[in-house]
Amino acid sequence: MNMNMNQKMVAIALSVLIALVVIILVVIVVLENTNAKKTMNFANVTTEENTTKIEDKPEENKIEVENKIEDKPKKITGEIVEVETEDGGIIPVPPTFEYIEGESSKGAVISDKDGNEFVWIPVENINNYQRQMFIHNGENGETETTLEDENIRDINAYNDEFDDSIRNYKGFYIARYEAGKDANNKLVSKKGELVWTGITWKNARDLSLDMYSKNDYFQTDLVNSYAWDTTCIWLRNCGINVDDSSDTGNYQNNVNHQNKIVATGSNEMWKTNNIYDMAGNAWEYTTEEYGEHEKYHMGRGGGYWNEGHVYPISSRGQSEDNANLAIGFRVVMYLK
User: Fold this and answer.
1) CB 71 within 8 A of CB 57
2) DSSP alpha helices (H): ranges in 210-290?
3) How far is the C-alpha of 197 from the C-alpha of 3, rounded, in Å?
4) What 3-state class would DSSP assign to 289?
5) The model's pTM
6) What does the DSSP 8-state code read for residue 75?
């Protein structure tokens, strides 16, 4: 009886021992397979890394490094050259740009290598580069007040570099189109692009200043009131009505009104001397400011929901500098 009991206990113990051994073997096999998979994946990454000759960098970092290299702006070199336009006039063209069309006196157009276009605004004398309160200033209608009376200033009032450029080159460039946002969220001045609205004044200014890499030939900025008003006076001298833009902009009372902000350069009827949509479509931020303690900036040109005889190309409107879907901006460029 005792013998049988002992034999049973030994058999049970052996069975338990065998089971434990089997479990341990199974665990070892599983762990080895798992480690083998990790090593294989790591080996694959290492192989790809070595073939690209980027040492100690995983594949995802390789892509990031390549993008940084591609996005790094190239240094702008060359010189500002005088180019003859189709009417026999002469305009100064900076490096990386070329003349493409238009008369020097009525809107000569230049384009950079990426297709961003600017229009030449001739200014014969520095005294003609000025701010002005026009007849229509929004709901006020005809007004006898001045910019000083309204306490409207411009932070570019003492931009000596811009002033010297006017003296030396007899003009400046303004973006042909409202600021656009391309598929890569990059600032552009091109036809058929989404108008960049819903942006704060500060971000619009920063983007305008940094549209091109720093160079010794030209500088971009958010359009100032001197440039806007000088452009309006030039347009008026060319026979364009800047006090009633109903026929030349995307306004509520325009026959081609779209009841929304449309893509840049959508309608040839909304072009004045080769510049699109300065009248209507979206209000446009400038560097002109108002206010005593809290300073805000002026918008220009009216919007699609306004009427063109009330808010023409020359009109001003107060903004709150916030990211408003009704307000866009435009870039100006001067030569150094």
Assistant:
1) no
2) 225-237
3) 95
4) strand
5) 0.77
6) P
Q: Which uninterrupted H or E stretch holds 172?
A: strand 171-175
Cα–Cα distance for residue pair 305/281, rounded to 1 Å: 8
The 10 Å CB-count burial string (b at 16+, else e) for 207-220 is: bbeebbeebebbbb
Residue pair 335/218 in contact (Cβ under 8 Å)? The answer is yes
**Cα–Cα dist 80/279, whole Å:** 31
Cα–Cα distance for residue pair 303/249, rounded to 1 Å? 9
Helix, strand or coil, per DSSP, at residue 61:
helix
**Single-letter amino acid, residue 249:** G
Nearest to 204 by CA among 276, 282, 284, 260: 284
How far is Cα 312 from Cα 245, in angstroms, rounded to an integer? 5
Answer for the pair 250, 270: CB distance below 8 angstroms, yes or no.
yes
75: left (phi over 0), alpha (psi -120 to 50) or beta: beta
What are the tens digits of pLDDT across the range 253-264? 999 999 999 999
Distance CA 332, CA 227 (A): 8
Rounding to the nearest 10 degrees, give the CA dihedral for residues 262, 114, 72, 178: -30
Condensed to tens digits (0 to 9), the pLDDT of residues 310-332 reads 999 999 999 889 999 999 999 99
